[in-house]
Amino acid sequence: MYAFELHQPKTLNDAVTLLGQGDVKPLAGGQTLVATLKTRLAFAEQLVDLGGIPELRGIRRDGDMIVIGATTRHAEVAKSDLVQQAIPGLASLAGQIGDPQVRNLGTLGGSVANSDPAACYPAAVLGLGATVCTNRRQIAADDFFLGLYQTALEEGELITEIRFPVASRSAYEKFRNPASHFALAGVFVSQRDGDKQVRVAVTGCGPCVFRATAIEDALGRDYRPEVAKGVTLSPQGLNTDLHASAEYRAHLIPVLAARAVAQTLA
Prior knowledge:
It holds the Pfam family FAD_binding_5. Keywords: FAD, Flavoprotein, Oxidoreductase. InterPro entries: CO_DH_flav_C, CO_DH_flav_C_dom_sf, Diverse_Substr_Oxidored, FAD-bd_PCMH, FAD-bd_PCMH-like_sf, FAD-bd_PCMH_sub1, FAD-bd_PCMH_sub2, Mopterin_DH_FAD-bd. This is Xanthine dehydrogenase family protein subunit M. By secondary structure, this protein is an alpha+beta fold. The protein has three domains: about 5-50, 2-Layer Sandwich (Uridine Diphospho-n-acetylenolpyruvylglucosamine Reductase, domain 2), CATH 3.30.43; about 55-165, 2-Layer Sandwich (Uridine Diphospho-n-acetylenolpyruvylglucosamine Reductase, domain 3), CATH 3.30.465; about 170-265, Enolase-like, domain 1 (2-Layer Sandwich), CATH 3.30.390. It is about 35% helix and about 25% strand. The chain has twelve helices and 14 strands. The chain has a five-stranded antiparallel β-sheet. A four-stranded antiparallel β-sheet has the order 11-12-13-14, sandwiched between helices. A three-stranded parallel β-sheet has the order 1-3-2, with helices on one face. A hairpin with a 6-residue loop joins strand 11 (about 170-175) and strand 12 (about 185-190). The N and C termini lie far apart (about 50 Å). The mean pLDDT is about 95.
């Protein structure tokens, strides 16, 4: 790891000011950044530690939204009574991320900003139609994830919180890599009260998280596990790697979607 200077601001304004000064990277939970710095796949002359900024952390309800601060830990989301009651699928997803060390250090904002193609949180953000709030603007989930490790965030822009709509039904099913615990495939399903529209978001299968619109349409007409499982998806554009082929992932997605639907009806 190369030498760097560490800043520990106490306010969001101070952090934003520091990020505008040369070769600087924000540090949230460090579960990705520290590893890439150690292997010299990333470099920064300065790091800005966001962990000491109170306004970036916490969980609250605001009307029909659950609002979660960017530096809130995965374990905090998983254990939150508020999240478990309002969006059980989100709490369950947070509890499946990595291992206890990762869950107790990793943050919501860090995971979403990184947009790892196999990360779990992006599936909840897109699957619930959440809004990503930054120090500059609000970004709809459908406009946020652009590609492999690519998001709509601009230089110096920080996620401050994410606003998740309360769902009447939500569940996450994950087929995990046994070594990394990343999703070989993961599917988040949600439906809101009074709204027949179903959202189905898939992680681990493409360059970034995406919506399985064919499954959404089928479930919108008939919300049953068998319906989700009966959808045939093309492997075109899906990932093939040493863990699984695109064809295998195309098969997994409807299976996991059916399991998620069954969860919501249990």
